[in-house]
Amino acid sequence: MILRNPLFLLLIPVLGLILLYLEARRRKEHTRLRGAVRYSSVGVLKEAPVSPRVRWARRLPWLRLIYLVLLVLALARPQVGLKETILRQEGIDIVLALDVSTSMLAEDFIIRGSRKNRLEVVQEVTAEFIAKRPRDRIGLVIFAGRPYILSPLTWDHNFSTVRLREVKAGMIEDGTAIGSALATAVNRLRESTAESKVVILLTDGVNNAGAIPPLAAAEAAAALGVTVYTIGAGSDKPVPYPVTDPWGRKVYQNVEIGLDEELLQEIAAITGGKYHHANDTASLVQIFREIDQMTTSPLEMPVFREYRELYPYLLLAAFFLIALETVLNNTVYRRLP
To answer: From CA 295, how far away is CA 290, in angstroms rounded?
Structure first.
């Protein structure tokens, strides 16, 4: 909560002092009048018990103080924040193209002491990358034997992250269509007017599917001003791969999964990007951090905050107390001349 006009709060102690002064004067006058009265009997001077009506009448000045304070608070204009909206400007548009072929089930990565498959680690690290870039539009393309648009370019990163966590290896026919995936990602950026356009392509395999050659897709990206950062995921040595034995049990076989690093390096070079190799979780995290630094927008996005005004509620409460005091003074606590 904020106060638009906080200086009005200085009136509160002033009001308190004024009311205390007036109450002191009233008491002094009351004492003076009592001293001026002459009684024929000393017994009359004994204090009569104070009735509840009189006790409450003495508290009316506090009611007056409360509604005056409420009026001062209303002048200070308290506001409570409802939501924060980033006023978007042309910054960076990023499309992440992620390999979800069955080779991503290889379990050569470790997270928090537990062995995980490549896709699980990529999902977690990518989600962290997305969360750190609230000012950029981000889209998602997944691919195996063909590409699939998982999320369009959007500032709704919650939507993108939810869709990303739903991805399973094998949900698309198997294969590794690097060229088609890159072309699809670049096509998402074709209409972009952003200051910078970036594709981050991650795969652990060799291009063996799709109708578009990877280098032709890279040339198209360069022509459109799209920078491509490529990531080769996984070890170049035999890695544990889960399979099901004849008894339905999950067992592991050491298999070697080919990775065309030369192709990924060439794609990055054509577009002015950079190739990275991630052979474990730590290196993958570091790669995304480096890309995050390399693709930082120099623009500062202004922030617009929406607020709800609270002064109408304070005025309503103050007017209610004013009306209550008026009614009480003219009915229950009315003083006869």
So the answer is: 9
